[in-house]
Amino acid sequence: MNAPKGRDVVVAAASAGGIGALRDLLARLPADLPAAVLVALHVSPYGGGALPRVLQRASALPVSYAEDGGDLTRGRVFVAPPNRHLLLSGDTLRLSAGPRQNGHRPAADPLLFSAALAAGPRVIAVVLSGALDDGAAGGAAVRRHGGLVLVQDPAEAPFRGMPDAALEAVPDAPALPLAGLAARIDGEAREAGEEFPEPVRDAELERRVAWLLPELPAAFEPGSTVPEGVSCPECGGPIYLGRRRPGEPGRYECVVGHAWTGRSLFSGQTHQVEWALEQAARQLTERRRLNRRLEAEAAGRGHHISARRFAETGEETERALVTIQRLITEMGDQSGTEADTGPEPG
Questions:
Q1: Is 42 an annotated catalytic residue?
Q2: Which among 8, 42, 85, 264 is annotated as catalytic?
Q3: Which residue has the higher pLDDT, 224 or 297?
Q4: Known catalytic residue: 59?
Q5: Full-model pTM
Q6: Residue ranges per domain, the chain?
Q7: Distant-in-sequence, close-in-space partners of 75: CB < 8 Å, separation ≥ 6
């Protein structure tokens, strides 16, 4: 891309409720927008190729999945494909199958980190509807490197977790409805001014981005050499406290490269516990069924002592199953409360 006069790199992050927000935002951007738009939306790794088509129906800008090694082109929308992080290296788009970040691939933070490194003050980061806090640390990085951070008005967002977290990390970020976001993006992209300076070096951000690109291996350098006593929800390895920048949420890393904020790590652990409880409930249900069968067989053969023992074991199994089912219900109620207030996995 030629050296621009305005901010020409728009990076948009979204999760739960984000498809509608992205569609409405793109519908308000003009066909001659002098900026490239890069999108990271939390999607299933097994999702089909429908997202660009869904967004294209509303957008006057061409929408497509990003391709590894593709050029950053103004006036186009590039979407992170399922199961790939979207990164920016200079004016080149990169795709990465590197470790999940905050439990997601694609995730918002890697895109925002890489954009802050590659384009600095040219960047407009937009955080839309979503749960938990992916994008908050990335927004702080963009702001630290001279870029602009815009946030969807949390009162308008279907899920306000990500907008609230972004505002916490970047307190001076304007919180606007979608119409206001589109107008601000268009205005910033067209604003004439001095040429922006070259992006500044940032060794920590470079390390985080390099971790996701195999040709740029980064050594594991946690902020602490003492494990936190918590295992990684993705791989089960020990979690270490990562380096934290001013304004960023706490960062936790494992040696594989999975990285988490405290809230996303807590959510990942909660899902692990729920899964374990569900597996325990399934096994107890099967044990109860087998107990009943063995009790009936023993009684049918006149083995009353064995039948009574199987009955007692069945009662113990039943009590354990009731306890497990109550825990599953209580955890589900807690997750529902979190969803109402925003901090739920997107």
A1: yes
A2: 42
A3: 297
A4: no
A5: 0.82
A6: 9-190, 219-346
A7: 31, 32, 33, 34, 35, 36, 61, 62
